[in-house]
Amino acid sequence: MFISSLAAWEIDKKYLPCIFKHAINFIQSINSEAIIPGTYPIQGNDIFAKIECGAGRTESERRFELHHKYIDVQILLSGHERQDYALTYYKLEEDRPEEDISFYSVISNIGTVYLQPKDYTIYFPGELHAPSMKVNKTSFYKKAIIKINSQLI
What proportions of the chain, in percent to the nearest 5, are helix, strand and coil? Predict the structure, then answer.
C-alpha cells in the first residue's frame, strides 16, 4: 500500500515503477469536473480507468476487497473519502475471479486513511482494502480508479 498526493508526484515517481506514470498522465489529461462515471481505456486491458462517484458506504456496508491480477491506483478527484485497510483477513466471503475481486471478512488489524482531493492510494494484489467509505453524513466523492495489470511491473 502506498499513500500520497499528486502534489508529491515528482518525488513519488522516483520510487515507484515507471508504469504508474500512465495513471498520473491520465488524471492530468482529463477535466475531473466534467468526466462522467464509466470505464476509460488507457492501454487496452492492461491499464484502464474507472470513474465513479457516490455518497460512500457506511460502516455496516463496508466490504474488504482484494485483487489478484490488477493494481488499484485510487485518486480522489473531488469530495472526501475514507478508505480502510487491513493487514489480516480471515474468511473468504465472495470470490469473483472474472472481475478480479475477492471479498473477505476482517475483524482486526484495521487502519484508516482519509483522502482529500488529489490524494491517492495504491493497493497491490493481495492488499486488503475497503474503499469508498463515508467521511460524514453529507459525504460525496468522485474518484478515478486506474487498474494496472501487475504483470507490467
Answer: 20, 50, 35
Backbone φ, ψ for residue 20 (5° rounding)? -70, -15
**Amino acid at site 79:** G
Q: Residue 26: CA atoms inside 13 Å, Cβ hemisphere, count?
A: 26
Grid cell for residue 15: 520510487
pLDDT at 113: 97
- CA–CA distance, 106 with 108 (Å, rounded to integer): 6
The dihedral sign for the CA sequence 25, 145, 32, 131: negative
Q: Which residue has the higher pLDDT, 42 or 108?
A: 42
Burial 108-126 (b: 16+ CB within 10 A, else e): eeeeebebebbbbbbbeee
Q: Would you say 150 and 21 are in contact if contact means Cβ atoms under 8 Å apart?
A: no
Closest CA to 53 of 123, 126, 143: 143
Distance CA 19, CA 134 (A): 30
